[in-house]
Every structure is written in structure tokens, then in C-alpha cells.
């Protein structure tokens, strides 16, 4: 999780003074500090290598922060400006984009500043700073679970839990924010001993290191098991159940609908499920490596692969950067709205012409437009009517014949 960006530098940033002096002696308080980039025992080379990794980390995080902020801000803007995008599913995406935007705009920059300056130098201040990204990322995970539960209830339970799908969305989104915040802030209250004592913090001269203020038990048992593994299992269950239900419905409606209508309905559902699965799989690829490394460090410290922590931290933050790309090229409505935002003209204009191909024209003041083969033509609103509707001339002739027939019958 984003909090482990500081965890990496708690591991490698706290370089022992003895190592910098050229010796290999390590004190008890620095037993987990490894100079993986200075094989010659440290010295100036080790210090320079440490600074190179620090600068590389800061630059990578800063670039990711800018991309995450701008891309998710665009998703928020499109949702607020386009009414046709405000579907129930996209409401979850809006809330998720808001979480990612806060992580990119505030969470990552604050963590970078803390890593570079080792501030704040107070115990609870340091703990709170490194829990900001933990809060946002936990909320983001629960949003993934909320989307899966919403789809499961809608398709498999036929909305039996809530009469209104909108009320269910509001409830699940609010539950994601509240529960994510409460779980991620457990170390602040220290009811279960998830935060180290202030003595451990003062032992490193009041410098802000993540692993000096947060216990590994919290990272492994609460965050990894409680907010990564358990939600993943529930999400997989929901989507497997949804897929089974869709397959069952395909067999049931096979002879009830026309093939074109049946294919259209099933293709829409399959596409939506496919996009949501891509979203979840990308999240797992981004986050699992970091917490697998954390688990190895906690249970088997002798097999620690701490040298890969840096790349796992950067990979974890890419989850927030990938989400807007998935929305833009997959979710219904977002792709079209984003193309309109960037004023990108595609072959979809010809599709608009096809939609109007069932309309005829007559005289009248021009008020509407239609597009055909890339050319804009103005048609009057009175002239737009379905081909299936009778023309005014035919109506008039039918009325005249009816009147004549009635006259003949009377006479």
C-alpha cells in the first residue's frame, strides 16, 4: 500500500553510521537496515548509491502523482459535466476516482516529503502521515468489493436486498469510506498494539520511519489478510456467480428473443463484467507483490527479498494510474464522453447518421441537425418522423375516401 513507500526507506534509508564510516558493524536498532547498493561496505560509494535510489524513488513517485491527479481529475470532470454518464455503476467509479485523486494529489506528495525530510519528528504526527495513503488505498479496495457486490445483487439476487439500486449504491459507497477509514486508522488508537512504542521512535533520534511507528502484524494480518485477500476472495465469488447466471440465462432466453436482440443484451453484460475483471486483476498485480514481500519479511526474515521493495512500492502506486485508463477505454459512456472532451472525431459520426436513417424530410424551418457521411445537414423538427408513420398526404386521402364512402352510404 502507499504507506510502504516510506517503509522502503525505513529499511534502506536509515543507513548505520558505522557502515558509512567503512565498517560492517550494525547495531541492534538497525538490524533490518541493508545497504543493498554498497557491496564494498558503504563509505562514500554507499552513500552516493543511497542518494541515487532516493532521487529515483522521488522522481518516479512525483511523476506518478502528477499522472494520477490529472487522469482521475478528468474522470471526475466528465462525470460531473455529462449527465448521460451518471449511471449507478459509474457512481462507484466516480467515488473510486475521487479516492485515487486524493491519493495522487495529497497522499503521495506528503509521503515523499516525509521520506526526504524524515519529518514530522513527533510520534503520532509521523504515524498519521504514513497512514494517509493507507486510508485511501483501503477505501479504494472496498470500492472494488462494493462494485462486485452491486453487480452480484443486481444480476443474481434480482435486487432483493434494496428496492432501489441507487440507494444500494449510496449505502455501499458510504460503507466503503467509513469502514476503510476505521480499519486504516487502527494504529492511531493502538487498541491492539499495532503501533510501536514511542521508545522505539525515540531510539532513531525522532526520525520518521514507517516501520518504527507501525507494527508488521498490522500490515500482514489486518491490511494484507483483511483488506486484500478476503475482499479478493469475495470479488472472485461474486464474478464467478455472475458468469454462471449469465450462462444460465443465455440458455433460457435462447428461443425467446431474436438472435440480434439476444446477442446485444448478452454482449453488453459480458463487456461490463470483462472490464470490471480487468480492473480487479490489475489491482492484484499492482498490490500483491508488495504484501508478499512484507509477509516474507515478517515470517521468514532470513529469506528477505528487501531489495525488491522499491519496485514493489512504485508498482503499487501504478494501480491508481491504471484505473482511469481502464475507464476511458472500457466503461460504457466514459470513452465517448472523453472523446467529446478532447474533441476527437471518429467514425462514430457515421453511426449517428445510421440512427437517423429511418427518418424522412419535409418542409419547415431548420432546427435540428443530422450527420451522414461526415456532412452536416439541417432538418426541421416538424419533418422528423418515422417511416412507419403514414405521410400527411396519405392521411388526407384516406380521410377523403372515408367521407365519400359515408356520403354514398347515406345517399
UniProtKB/TrEMBL annotation:
<dbReference type="GO" id="GO:0004983">
    <property type="term" value="F:neuropeptide Y receptor activity"/>
</dbReference>
<dbReference type="InterPro" id="IPR017452">
    <property type="entry name" value="GPCR_Rhodpsn_7TM"/>
</dbReference>
<keyword id="KW-1133">Transmembrane helix</keyword>
<feature type="transmembrane region" description="Helical">
    <location>
        <begin position="54"/>
        <end position="80"/>
    </location>
</feature>
<keyword id="KW-0807">Transducer</keyword>
<feature type="transmembrane region" description="Helical">
    <location>
        <begin position="272"/>
        <end position="293"/>
    </location>
</feature>
<keyword id="KW-0472">Membrane</keyword>
<comment type="similarity">
    <text>Belongs to the G-protein coupled receptor 1 family.</text>
</comment>
<feature type="domain" description="G-protein coupled receptors family 1 profile">
    <location>
        <begin position="71"/>
        <end position="327"/>
    </location>
</feature>
<feature type="transmembrane region" description="Helical">
    <location>
        <begin position="122"/>
        <end position="148"/>
    </location>
</feature>
<keyword id="KW-0812">Transmembrane</keyword>
<feature type="transmembrane region" description="Helical">
    <location>
        <begin position="305"/>
        <end position="329"/>
    </location>
</feature>
<protein>
    <recommendedName>
        <fullName>G-protein coupled receptors family 1 profile domain-containing protein</fullName>
    </recommendedName>
</protein>
<keyword id="KW-0675">Receptor</keyword>
<feature type="region of interest" description="Disordered">
    <location>
        <begin position="363"/>
        <end position="385"/>
    </location>
</feature>
<dbReference type="Pfam" id="PF00001">
    <property type="entry name" value="7tm_1"/>
</dbReference>
<feature type="transmembrane region" description="Helical">
    <location>
        <begin position="92"/>
        <end position="116"/>
    </location>
</feature>
<dbReference type="GO" id="GO:0005886">
    <property type="term" value="C:plasma membrane"/>
</dbReference>
<keyword id="KW-1003">Cell membrane</keyword>
<dbReference type="InterPro" id="IPR000276">
    <property type="entry name" value="GPCR_Rhodpsn"/>
</dbReference>
<keyword id="KW-0325">Glycoprotein</keyword>
<feature type="transmembrane region" description="Helical">
    <location>
        <begin position="169"/>
        <end position="189"/>
    </location>
</feature>
<dbReference type="InterPro" id="IPR000611">
    <property type="entry name" value="NPY_rcpt"/>
</dbReference>
<keyword id="KW-0297">G-protein coupled receptor</keyword>
<feature type="transmembrane region" description="Helical">
    <location>
        <begin position="218"/>
        <end position="242"/>
    </location>
</feature>
